[in-house]
Design a protein that fits this description.
The complex is a heterodimer of chains A (280) and B (294). In chain A, 77% of the residues lie in helices and 1% in strands. Chain A is an all-alpha fold and 280 residues long. Chain A folds into 2 domains: 2-39; 45-279, MetI-like (MetI-like fold), CATH 1.10.3720. Chain A has a two-stranded antiparallel ribbon with strand order 1-2. In chain A, strand 1 (49-50) and strand 2 form a beta hairpin. Chain A is globular. The termini of chain A are far apart. In chain A, 52% of the residues are buried. Chain B is an all-alpha fold and 294 residues long. Chain B has one domain (65-293): MetI-like (MetI-like fold). Helices cover 76% and strands 1% of the residues of chain B. The longest helix of chain B has 38 residues, at 8-45. In chain B, 45% of the residues are buried. The chains are: A mainly alpha (280), B mainly alpha (294). At the A-B interface, helix 1, helix 3, helix 4, helix 5 and helix 8 of A face helix 1, helix 3, helix 4, helix 5 and helix 6 of B. Chain A: Residues 64-267 form the ABC transmembrane type-1 domain. Chain A: One of its GO terms (molecular function) is phosphate transmembrane transporter activity. Chain A: The chain crosses the membrane at residues 12-34, 68-89, 101-123, 129-152, 184-204, 210-237, 249-270. Chain A: It comes from Sporotomaculum syntrophicum.
Chain lengths: 280, 294
């Protein structure tokens, strides 16, 4: 009897904690839509912040633009080193000593707090190289932050490609780079793209690294490399922290979360497409 | 591997790939060395123990008082407290997904976990500050509801997905024979899970917890918006405090390069990053031993 009660309580614990995850996500989304939804309009998306102090009226267009610039620059900087490192780990190094070390370094990089990346880029880019608080410094910081994400996801996508393709190409005398370019890469493309999207989403939501390297309370975000930019997550922080406008803060949070969930869902469907490709 | 000797082109391609991979991964060491260099005057003038255990942070005084004990204590409270809340829920959810969840429900929950990790920390911090802190203020009639506890609560929500994903993977690695034997003996599903599967997966589950601890220590925005940001030594979980990442984020912009305030913030960064790396390396050694043992 006592045993049955314990079993029932345990079952309750498992179900409650399982369903809690779902409840949390739904609560966040519904609450943001409820509080922020009414304030989203074409004007909010397409206008610059206005009113006095700035941000109490108007919209968030420069912040959207700034975030897009930042993640684009981060991707441009990190994509080549990230992919090449992944290729080394999956195709060239495999289980060698160097690959083991690189794997460990990349893994440790993934664990580095993003504020530390910001601190490093602040000292190197903003101060020493004289970039100042700028789009360039922010893009560089975000690039360092997403580099391990790109490496790990692309490496795993490449490693998941059936080993037989490599063996057959090898036995036919096809060169390694040609095999990689024409056989392995296309078969891993969906998974790699999913990883890149995740990296973009990760960069778009990051606040701490751009707070010390790139973000301004107000800027035009024209895309000039050495100018500060506005960014959605930082704008949200400022709207709340400086008590500018709670309504705009909720609406900005909704736009940001909507953008990230969209990217996330796209990445998830690409990875399930990849799984289907791998099974064939 | 005969083709390796065949073309100069192949050799060039592979050496480019090797050098890019090596150089980009070495960036981590470059970061550490750079931060160490920037903070060097602090270590040589104040000393390691003076910096770590000094309890007064007045970097603008002459002479500056630079000690970060209260921030280290805050960091530990916030991150440790987050785990205290997240562990039972995260493990419960992992067990649920691995053993009990009906298939369609599990198929919904897994992407949900992914999406929770996709929500940025500033949004968690904002919601925590706008909803949770407000709730504390009204409910307990406080002047301000920010506290280490509030930060822990939100951090817990942020690290639960990581605990779930990693511990579920650990549970799934347990060989199916144990499950079959348990079922054949007629023990309940719950008994089987708690007494047989969890002990077998405990290293992986512990690893998930340690990894979450590292994340919680380095998290900036949520903590910045919720912990209250006072520089006093926190006496309890419900006091205000200012964890290390928040200190860096708040003060970096206002320092003059070359000042001891500036150098001190880099020393703070070095301490934080070494704490996180120590946790990561510890977990790697643990997992390697696990793989070799199994």
């Amino acid at each position: 009897m006592k045993k049955a009660i314990t079993d029932l309580l345990l079952l309750g614990w498992f179900w409650v904690s399982g369903l809690l995850i779902l409840v949390i996500l739904l609560a966040i989304i519904i609450y943001l839509i409820w509080r922020g939804g009414p304030f989203i309009s074409s004007g909010f998306i397409l206008e610059s912040p206005g009113g006095f102090p700035l941000g109490t009226e108007g919209g968030i267009f420069p912040a959207i633009k700034g975030t897009l610039w930042l993640i684009l620059l981060a991707l441009v900087i990190s994509i080549v080193p990230g992919l090449l490192t992944a290729i080394y780990l999956s195709e060239y190094g495999r289980s060698g000593r160097l690959a083991e070390i690189i794997n460990l370094l990349v893994q440790s990089m993934a664990g580095i707090p993003s504020i530390i990346t910001g601190l490093f880029v602040y000292a190197l880019g903003v101060v020493t190289l004289g970039w100042g608080i700028s789009l360039l410094a922010g893009g560089f910081a975000l690039a360092i932050m997403v580099f391990p994400v790109i490496v790990v996801s692309s490496r795993d996508a490449l490693l998941a490609v059936d080993e037989n393709y490599r063996l057959v190409a090898n036995s036919l005398g096809v060169s390694k780079s040609y095999t990689l370019y024409r056989v392995i890469f296309p078969r891993a493309a969906a998974g790699i793209t999913a990883g890149l999207l995740l990296a973009l989403g990760y960069a778009a939501g990051a606040t701490a690294p751009i707070m010390v390297t790139a973000a301004a309370v107000i800027a035009s975000s024209s895309g000039a490399l050495l100018e500060p930019v506005m960014a959605l997550p930082y704008h949200l922080y400022i709207l709340f922290n400086e008590h500018l406008s709670m309504n705009h803060a909720y609406a900005t949070a909704l736009v940001l979360v909507g953008l990230l969930l969209f990217i996330n869902i796209l990445a998830l469907s690409l990875s399930s497409l990849q799984e289907r490709i791998n099974r064939h | 591997m005969i083709y390796r000797g065949l073309g100069l082109k192949e050799k060039i391609i592979s050496s480019i790939i090797i050098s890019v991979a090596t150089v980009s991964s070495l960036l981590l060491l470059a970061m550490l060395i750079f931060i160490l260099r920037e903070s060097w005057p602090i270590w040589s003038q104040i000393g390691v123990s003076g910096f770590l255990f000094g309890s007064s942070w007045r970097p603008l005084n002459t002479p500056p008082e630079i000690g970060i004990l209260s921030m280290i204590v805050s960091t530990m409270w916030v991150a440790g407290g987050a785990l205290l809340i997240a562990a039972p829920l995260g493990f419960g959810c992992a067990i649920f997904l691995a053993e009990f969840a009906p298939r369609p429900l599990a198929a919904i929950l897994r992407p949900v976990i992914n999406m929770l990790t996709g929500i940025p920390s500033v949004v968690y911090g904002f919601l925590g500050a706008a909803v949770l802190v407000k709730f504390f203020e009204v409910k307990f009639d406080l002047a301000s509801g920010e506290s280490l506890f509030a930060a822990s609560l939100i951090l817990a929500i942020m690290v639960i997905p990581f605990i779930v994903a990693n511990s579920e993977a650990a549970l799934r690695l347990v060989a199916p024979e144990y499950r079959h034997a348990g079922i054949a003996l007629g023990v309940s599903r719950q008994y089987l899970t708690l007494r047989i599967l969890v002990p077998l997966a405990r290293k992986g589950m512990f690893g998930a917890l340690v990894l979450a601890f590292g994340r919680a220590m380095g998290e900036t925005m949520a903590v910045l918006m919720l912990a209250g940001n006072t520089l006093r030594l926190p006496g309890s979980w419900f006091d205000k405090g200012e964890p290390l990442p928040a200190l860096i984020a708040l003060e970096l912009g206002s320092t003059t390069p070359g000042s001891s305030h500036h150098q001190a913030l880099f020393a703070v960064g070095l301490v934080l990053v070494l704490m996180v790396i120590a946790v990561n390396i510890g977990i790697n050694l643990l997992l390697n031993r696990l793989q070799k043992g199994g």
